[in-house]
Amino acid sequence: MLLMTQEDGDLDSLVRKRIRALRVAQGWSLEELAGRAKLSQSSLSRIENGRRRLALDQLVTLARALDTTLDQLVETADDDVITSPMIDSAHGLMRWPVKGDPGMTVVRQRMTQPPPENPARMRAHPGREWLVVLSGTAVLMLGHRRFRVETHQAAEFPTMMPHAIGTAGGPCEILGIFDRDARRGHQREGGDRDPQEPGE
After folding, report:
1. How many whole angstroms separate alpha carbon 163 and alpha carbon 142?
2. Which residue range(s) make up the domain with 111?
3. For 82-94, how does the pLDDT look when each residue is reduced to its tens digit (9 = 90+)?
4. How far is CA 8 from CA 11, 15, 123, in A?
5. Domain annotation covers residue 81
6. Domain tally, the chain
7. How many C-beta neighbours within 10 Å does residue 29 have?
């Protein structure tokens, strides 16, 4: 069964380049990948250089051997590579959805208030968050622990730990990344979210 025809030339070429790039990234020779995919070395060479048509069963086997999926192997770049942020002026937020994983969100926020140090005023919910300080110094409260996060430093933490984020004196700007569960946790709590804490 053939996956592609002559009309799919751009995708055909992309898939061949992707197979070779993934092989090289693993540090494998043609012989090594051919062995893992149970293909002859000459067949794999012809697949990579365009002298053999791409068959679905071979692509499934190659995807598995390259530790990826068929969907990822044949996906094309969307036309909308560039995305604009959604602006939340009331909280000084800019949000970008992550197209590759719609459950994830990137948030940029300027903060001017210190975080609450009382764990009773912090929030906890399933998920994981990452933050990068773009300017200034942020303070991350995790339970009773207090962390200073300087410009260009990053922090990663499980959001089941009571947490809050604020500034250490002067204004600071952070970029936060929320996984699916953390995003849902902020959405549920959105009605009473402290303005200085990033999230939904």
Report:
1. 5
2. 86-192
3. 777 788 877 777 8
4. 6, 11, 51
5. no
6. 2
7. 11
